[in-house]
Queue: 3 jobs
Job 1
Amino acid sequence: MDIGNSFIKQHDKYNSNFVLSFENTECLRGIAILLVIIQHISGGFGTNLLTPCGGTGVAIFLFISGFGLNESYKINGLKGFWIKKILRVFLPYFILEFIFFVIYTIDIKSFLLDISGINTSYWYVGFILKWYVIYYFSIKFMPKYSSLILLFFGIIMIFMLPGIQAEQSFSFLCGVIASNNIQILKKKSLKTIFQIAIIS
């Protein structure tokens, strides 16, 4: 996941106790991965009892992504925004999907819809792409109201998107808000931030 690790690493040099330091972020990401894996394994056994684990893991991923992206913007602006996203997120996905396209002879229309994020095989890719687009244009043209714009689209997603995507409508936004209030965050414990990510 692209979460602005370069900023976080740089920030650690000045504040090793920062609650969302690189080390703590790695821990949160590990917890999120574990939760998603647990949910998928339980689903394979035909039970939905652990389904909330997957949603919680995704919420943590999105929260950290929104936070890291906004922190990176503070340092670098929008310079190289899409190049970084393409190289770190979408190029690996494109390569994976192209391999499937060649092996399984998927029709070209489905392939193009998939890699464009319109109708992806893995919903998270299309979902995070939506947030990247919304974030980019809100920051570029209306930076003063970017959080309100993100909130507006989050509300729309609740009603327009299916299932878990609707449930995660505010997770990315919460990460951005956390970044905008970083001075307050510095005074909070890792447990508090973890609770915020779960609630989001």
Note: The chain has a mean pLDDT of 81.
Job 2
Amino acid sequence: MTGTRKTTMRLSVHYCFIQGDFWMSSSVIIGFAAAYLQSKQIDNTQIGIILALAYILSIILQQMMAAAADKHKRLPLKIMTAGLMAAVVSLSILLAGCTDSEKLIAVLFILVCTLHLSIVPLINSLALQFVDRGIPVNFSVARGMGSVFYGIISFIVGYLVQRDGAAVIVPVFAVIYGILLVLTLTFPSPSPQMGKSEEGIGGRSQKIKGESFIAFFVRYKLFFVLLAGVTLQFITFNATCTYMINILRAVGGDSADLGLSNGLGALSELPTFLLFNYLVRKIRCSTLLKIAAFFFVVKFIVLLLATGVAMILFAQGLQMVTFALFIPASVYYVNERMDSENKVKGQALMTAAYIGVSGTIGDFAGGQMIDRLGVQAMLQAGVVLSILGLALIVIGAKDTADLRVSKALKAEGSCCHE
């Protein structure tokens, strides 16, 4: 094994643990958010507001961090990332010790989730900075490991919450994040000898001058139809993820079932993540997006019609052909559809659609609907939105003239999703 291959293997294994640990922490603080906040006597409407604020603030903070990264190019990416992680650990310790004040709990929880969500692109860029320098750190496998770790910790935390109560959630999260901080600090930074890419380190070193937003909109009108469809479907997706504990309780489930549900959904994603490079060579990206959109509708209908925990678990198993198919397909699709100067803008808009905008609306509106009209009303509205979203995605997901995957993505294996 050559020195370069050994370096690539070592980096890939280390990065797998970073992704795995990060998505474990996400499972705990986001996957069990409603269970934790409800245990603090915070109702669903308030939960929706708390999480919506976290999504909005994370979008703003991500832009601020991107600007800071461009301004301070000599600051190692891992140091910036570790600084935010240290803040998350500190705030989590404060949150774990706060038991009485609902307002203080809400503020601390918003801050923790805001910082946590803001770290996502930085975690991705830890790999991209090496990919840009010709070291093909395997992002797809690492993200697949993230799903495995997410699934495992979901089972464990679900059991712990059922046995010991929701108070265990934040301490477990803080411990996992402390380990993540150590893993990040010990992750190597690219050496000057590795060379530089034309596009910079993980998109940090230089900005690509693209079109104005109006010119971009005129050129890619159908892309905005696609974004509208994605937003509608992910409003329902984010709402069902956040309020899964309410959906389960409506059919007789509990916190242990929440852990089982989240874990099963995450583990079912792994085969798709690992096989996606093969799929994208056989099936057009636009078709994969439409397939994922169709099965999102199927999943939400199953959740609506569920009469027991088993049906909800079946719906969660459809993550294999919904979320796990959509995420890499959307990255490949934007890469194929956009001119080089607009790729970054396209990826940013797609991410904002399925995380920021949809998460904000889904969590806020979902909490309101559950408190006022009940779980079934939320699911009924979600099915309608997902069907409308499917129609828009079918219209907006235009087949590309060049159906081949770009050389960079083919070699790297989809290093940009989520």
Note: Residues 343-373 form the longest helix (31 residues).
Job 3
Amino acid sequence: MGIGKSFSHQSSGRIRFVVVFLCTLLLSLRANSTQVTYQAHVANLDWLGWVEDGVTAGDPDSGNQVEAVQIKVVDFPSGYGIRYRAHVADISWQDWVSNGTTAGTTGLGKRMEAIQIELTGFPANYHVVYRACVRDLGWLGWKMDGDKAGTTDQSRAMLGLEIKIDQGPTAAFAMTAQGQTAYENGRLNLSVPPGGTVDVWFSADRSRDPDGVITQYEWLIDGNPQNTNRDFPFPFT
């Protein structure tokens, strides 16, 4: 399934050593393949089966509480893993478990109230992001890399959980004009005659998403939207 991500990279350049502009490149991305799979044990329903990459585990519409979860990463090299722990009613935070082991409880009728999730053995540019659906509150905001999703000290049951793994892309670009090329945080020294115009070409050809596909480019100059193509000319006067 698709995973939406948004990342930016900024660069400033100088025209005739006087005019400074700020260029921002935003990327929209789609993941290539399954990266994380997980399942929820739900009151009155038992284990609901494995889902993956941002799909809801649990059954929020039924109102039945999540009591336990199991989480695994998929198709990563040996040494890459995931660990997690559950906050359970009447128990508080349990110990960390990992790689498909059960967090929470089954057969005790105790609700999960919150969860923390972390990647293990991954490079620093990988992140696990997740969110919890909580009774009376609905879906809470996305959390990342060990932050608490859900609530504690409110006696509110988790009703659902969604998890994704994101590998940070590289938003990189080049600026070209008058035989010069500059990159992020670079400088172009241009000569613009009075009343004249110089086209500076911007290209995002160097941008990459290691675990997915770039589906859209969005260029801003001095905070103003300019173009959605990979490459485009911008006139300076």
Note: The two ends are 45 Å apart (CA to CA).
